[in-house]
Amino acid sequence: MEDNLSDEFSELVQGQAELWNLTVGFQKSMSLRCALDLGIPDAINNYGQPMTLSQIQSALSLPSAKKPHLHRLLPLLTHIGFLFEQGAGVRTEAIYGLTTMSLLVLKNGASTMFPLACFNLDFIIVKPSLHLSEWFK
C-alpha cells in the first residue's frame, strides 16, 4: 500500500514538473529572441573573447535604466546553452562566451541561421499558435 502511494506521489510530481516545463518553456525561445534583438552574440564575437556582464552592458546600445536588468537574462541564456558562463566567484565577475548555438546566429557568420531564427520567433509566426483552439471551435 505504501509503495502504491509512493508511486502515485512520484507520478504526480513528475506530471507537475512536465506541466511546468510546458507552460513556462516559451521563455527559453523568447529569451533567445531577446538576445538576438539586442545583438548579444555579435557583441561578444566582436570583442574577440568572453565578456563580463559590465562589458556586455557597455557594448550594447541600451538605455542606462535598462542595463542593470541584463543580469537576469544572461543566466537564462546560459541555462539554455546559448552562452557559457565561467569564473563566477566571490572576487571575480563571471564571464560569458559563445557556444556552438550562439555562433550559428552571428549576423555575419558564414553559415548564419540568424534570419531563420528571427523569422521562427517573430510574432507573425508565433501568433497563430495562440489562436489554435479558436480554429477548432
What does this structure look like?
This protein is mainly alpha-helical. 62% of the residues lie in helices and 7% in strands. It has a 3-stranded antiparallel β-sheet with strand order 1-3-2.
Question: Can you lay out the helices and strands and say which pair or pack?
Answer:
Blueprint: H1 2-24, H2 26-38, H3 40-47, E1 51-52, H4 53-59, H5 70-79, E2 83-86, E3 95-98, H6 100-103, H7 114-120, H8 123-130, H9 132-136
Antiparallel strand pairs: 1-3, 2-3
In total, how many domains does the architecture comprise?
2
* Largest sheet, spatial ordering of strands: 1-3-2
Q: Can you tell me the CATH superfamily of the largest domain?
A: Winged helix-like DNA-binding domain superfamily/Winged helix DNA-binding domain
Number of DSSP helical runs? 9
Average pLDDT reading: 92
The CATH architecture of the largest domain? Orthogonal Bundle
Briefly summarize what is shown:
InterPro entries: COMT-like, COMT_dimerisation, WH-like_DNA-bd_sf, WH_DNA-bd_sf. It comes from Rhynchospora breviuscula. This protein is mostly helical and 137 residues long.
